[in-house]
Amino acid sequence: MTTNAQIKIGDTLPAGSLAEYVEVATGVCAVGPNTFNVADITKGKTIAIFGLPGAFTPTCSAQHVPGYVALADKFKAAGVDEIWCISVNDAFVMGAWGRDQKATGVVRMMGDGNADYSRALGLSADFSKFGMGTRSQRYSMLVVDGVVKQLNVEQGGKFEVSNAETLLAQLG
């Protein structure tokens, strides 16, 4: 699934799936990588989603993820059911990064291993000059029942509008 059109406010999220490393088995999920249909897991929920280029990269690890972890309680108090981090990494890497960032149980670390979902959103980026291939642009969005209500896409190399504080302020 690919598209050149960037998703916008009012659009329904595209069909697709994301992978998450599940730390504790439940009746539905086994420990390890589990694949989830985006339409199924957004239905009836309010979700703060942020996307970024890669796990364990400088800005992503020092600022982007920590901001959402630190403000998770405020997002919940504002009516957000879940917070997701989407990156073009596999579920194993996302799980390890989530543990490193103390995000386990706070932010769902969703892997988009082949960048299929980032492409479907129209938010992929070519990071080949850095040896990283196709990645995600840096962005944040608020999604209610699968529909985009807020969208903040960074200009290349910037970290100014996709941070947790900006998205949280847009909730009120």
UniProtKB/TrEMBL annotation:
Q: Which residues form the active site?
A: 60 (cysteine sulfenic acid (-soh) intermediate)
Database matches in SUPFAM superfamilies: Thioredoxin-like
What keywords were assigned to this record? Antioxidant, Oxidoreductase, Peroxidase, Redox-active center
One Pfam entry for this protein is Redoxin
Q: Name one GO biological process term.
A: cellular response to oxidative stress
Q: Which GO terms describe its cellular component?
A: cytoplasm
Any GO molecular function: thioredoxin peroxidase activity
Q: Which InterPro entries match?
A: PRX5-like, Redoxin, Thioredoxin-like_sf, Thioredoxin_domain
Domain named Thioredoxin is located at: 7-172
EC assignment: 1.11.1.27
- Which regions span the lipid bilayer? none
- Keyword Oxidoreductase present in the record's keywords: the answer is yes
Reactions accelerated catalytically: a hydroperoxide + 2 glutathione = an alcohol + glutathione disulfide + H2O
Q: What does this protein do?
A: Thiol-specific peroxidase that catalyzes the reduction of hydrogen peroxide and organic hydroperoxides to water and alcohols, respectively. Plays a role in cell protection against oxidative stress by detoxifying peroxides.
Q: Which family does it belong to?
A: Belongs to the peroxiredoxin family. Prx5 subfamily.
In Swiss-Prot or TrEMBL terms, this protein is called Glutathione-dependent peroxiredoxin
